[in-house]
Amino acid sequence: MPDERALKNPYKDYDGTQTLFDAQGNLTASFAGRITHKINDLLTAMEKGLKSADPRDCTGYTGWAGIALLYLHLHGVFGEPSYLQRALDYVSRSLSLTGRWITFLCGDAGPLAIAAVVYHRLQRNQEADECVNRLLQLHQSVVKGVGNLPDELLYGRVGYLYSLVFINQQFGQEKIPMQYIQQICDAVLASGESLAKRNRTQEQSPLMYEWYQEQYVGAAHGLAGIYYFLMQPGFVVGQERLTTLVKPSVDFVCQLKFPSGNYPPCVGDERDLLVHWCHGSPGVMYMLLQAYKVFGVKQYLEDASQCAEVLWQRGLLKKGYGLCHGAAGNAYGFLALFKVTREAKHLYRACMFADWCMNYGKHGCRTPDTPFSLFEGMAGTIYFLADLLQPMRSKFPAFEI
């Protein structure tokens, strides 16, 4: 039965004869040149389209902070000063903060973190420090869970946590002391234990999380995204808690796998439908790969490889070319697997998805609600194409560490 949400993959799979990159994973000059040319074309189209974008949307997900993050990334890849200036222009628009949410993608933390990094690169250190201090003013309310704060990535504690990690990575130093990160992870663990006991699921999964009364599985709102962060080195204090709390919870997610290798959007959902970063195997892959790194269990890597097969068969989505639920976001799964295994097949598949993205608009895909934004639209596609120029340094934006 054909997948109604995906278009048929027209590409021949890797057979060892294709020459888009060398043995070290460096793209050929001709393919890299094609990508760079397409990035410039798409940037022109994006800038034109943004003239009609919602001036009030300051978020990373669909608003000005996301465009600023794209230009910050392009500056990092190409070193072009004008990109940093564009990042400053857009992040300046994003600092009309609402106070409603505290996360990188959908709240105040993202604009503040991105602004801090932009100012840092411009050597405007006082302004950078002011943004960092404003970001840290949110810390105690995040730890305490003020306002029934959830734990997931888009609107919860983990989304704030990423903001702190982003600062440290981009500054190249521990600008945010590790204790701040560990305090949030402690709060996430306590929250997960509490819900597992309340729902009486602790025997199956010592940690459990909900978003709007649903136990989501994927990266954006669910278990896989939270466990991915809890398994990062140094985030959880004590190997025992990793072994007794996090690993069995990861194994619980693994048991939800469909025969196809895909995963449900929610615990108890029997429909094998969604192959998105936000819901399904593309987001679960990151949890599996991190579990393999931390615990050394080969089954995690085998499950991640099975996710990649799902992506190859069903990852060119009718929803379009974006990050959250599109071909560019799905392609990052191949890059994540390539970085762990160094198997050429995965980089080749990412290149084929890039070829699909470079034929932007020619496949009859749907137009997103915010067609030029980072997570739904063209900006996210550009971000991925730029990352493909440096595969071993690629990271799914606002998520991958």
From TrEMBL:
Membrane as UniProt keyword: yes
Report the record's Gene Ontology biological process terms.
carbohydrate metabolic process; peptide modification
Give UniProt keywords alphabetically: Cell membrane, Cytoplasm, Membrane, Metal-binding, Transferase, Zinc
Record-level Gene Ontology MF annotations = glutathione transferase activity; metal ion binding
Membrane topology value = Peripheral membrane protein
Q: Does the keyword Ribonucleoprotein belong to this entry?
A: no
E.C. numbers? 2.5.1.18
Q: Where in the cell is it found?
A: Cell membrane; Cytoplasm
Ligand binding (Zn(2+)): 278, 324-325
Major subcellular site: membrane
Catalytically driven reaction(s): 1-chloro-2,4-dinitrobenzene + glutathione = 2,4-dinitrophenyl-S-glutathione + chloride + H(+); RX + glutathione = an S-substituted glutathione + a halide anion + H(+)
Name the Pfam families for this protein: LANC_like (PF05147)
Give the CC-aspect GO terms: cytoplasm; plasma membrane
Which InterPro entries does this chain map to? 6hp_glycosidase-like_sf (IPR012341), LANC-like (IPR007822), LanC-like_prot_euk (IPR020464)
Family membership noted in the UniProt record: Belongs to the LanC-like protein family.
Quote the protein name from its UniProt record: Glutathione S-transferase LANCL1
Q: Which organism is it from?
A: Alosa alosa
